[in-house]
Structures are given as C-alpha cells and as structure tokens.
Design a protein that fits this description.
Length: about 160
Amino acid sequence: MNLELFYSRNCRDIIDDIENALTNAYGIEINDYEELEPIYSAYNRRRGQYDAFPLLNFLISRKTKEIALWVIDKDIYCDNMNFIFGYASQGNGAILSIYRLNSTELIRKEAIHEVGHVLGLGHCHNHCVMQFSNSVEEAMKKPSELCEECKRVLNLV
Ligand SMILES: [Zn+2]
Ligand SMILES: [Zn+2]
C-alpha cells in the first residue's frame, strides 16, 4: 500500500514523526511527499475555519497514489461539528489538522486514526486508537495503538 503524504509549509517539521507512526502502525511505505497549502475557496470567513469537505475533495483530485494524507495547520470543521481533528474518505485519503493538537504524541495518534478510516476502519469502542474523540482531553485518553479486533480487520495480526 502506497501512501502519498501532503503537508502545508508549517507542518514540515512533524512529517518524519507522522511517517514513523504510520509505518509502525500499518507497515505503510511512504515515498511521495508534496507541499500543498489549503485552498482559500474552502475557507469560511464567518467561522474562521476551513470546510474539510472541499479540502478532502481537492486532495483526492491531486493525489497520484492509492491513498493520501494531507497534514495541515488550519482549523477545520464539517457538517454540524464545531471542529474536527481529521476527515477521511475510505479508500481515498484523509486530512489531518494539527491546529488543536498540542503534542507530537497526539498528532501521531490522530494520523493513525485518520489513516485507519482510509483503510476501512470505523470508530471502535475498545481500548483503541480508533475511539472517536471530540476533544483534546478525549484524544489524550485513548491509546496510540489499534486494538486486536481492528488489527484483525486489517490483517495486521
Ligand atoms: Zn474518526
Ligand atoms: Zn479497535
């Protein structure tokens, strides 16, 4: 499985950590990197945030490998959520916003979470990185690893 990693300028320093996290969690190989800034047409001036939906569509239109991850430093939202850490489309790609993630550990965790969605995992109720988190506190509480059930779904055990 080939993942293409996109990142906005201000996220350059975190890319190595994200790559390590994804390789450890999924054995994914990353050979393609591209600097890409969020498109202004996705910006909602009233909210001061970017709409994740057009961003994700833009990513999917730009990617050249099977799946892609786009790491950005802008605050994002979707539908009726005040904010989200990430937004994913199964089999295609995901966006990860580091805007509210205040540690490398959290960024790694949410990168694993979003790519889990891309690979087909849903939200999980076990002690698992695929737990849904609605806040930084919740994200801090969940583990950085997949539970055995999720690993089995992806044939990682
Ligand atoms: Zn999720
Ligand atoms: Zn799980």
